[in-house]
Amino acid sequence: MGGSNARSSAVERRLGEKRYLRKIRNLSMPGSNIPDWFSQEMVTFSERENRPLKSIIVCVVVSLDHQIEDDLRDDLPDVVDIQAEILILDSHLCATTLVLSGVPNTNDDQFHLCRYPIDHPLVSLLKDGYKIHVKRREPPFTKGVELKKWGIYLIYEGDDDYEGDEESLDESQQSRSERLANFLGSF
Hints:
Elements: H1 5-15, H2 18-21, E1 26-30, E2 43-44, E3 53-64, H3 71-75, E4 78-79, E5 82-88, E6 91-97, E7 100-101, E8 110-117, H4 121-124, E9 131-136, E10 145-156, H5 176-185
Antiparallel strand pairs: 1-8, 2-9, 3-8, 3-10, 4-7, 5-6, 5-9
């Protein structure tokens, strides 16, 4: 989001358009909130008849305490200690490290959004009753990483397909990308 004012304005305009947000895979920017319509607890997946799961969006807010010395943090291009995990009956099935691009050089909170498509194991391995949650790796690779907030949203077939103008619709009737565009527009 840094750089020239013209470049920042172009990025902000695109983040306000749902057609770009449907395709976005990763987004990192300063911020300390996640959308309130994301589940901020462990999510139990349930299959829906005639509505297959299309993708999963994970949002996190992390901060780095640069007062804590860590030689490895300066060598890594990403924050590598935040994971999404699938559990079966509270036993670990798999975990994926979230792609949290860019290690900020401040202690400020950073908002990260990761969207996983149907062919990603985080989505393709889900079966009815499996649980998904977000956690900080223990023990961490790098020191000073704090997971402050997290949320998960499951996108099913039809949740994000509306093509018309949605501004006059109630928020509960809007596509997920429109709701996300509205949220990002509030930053």
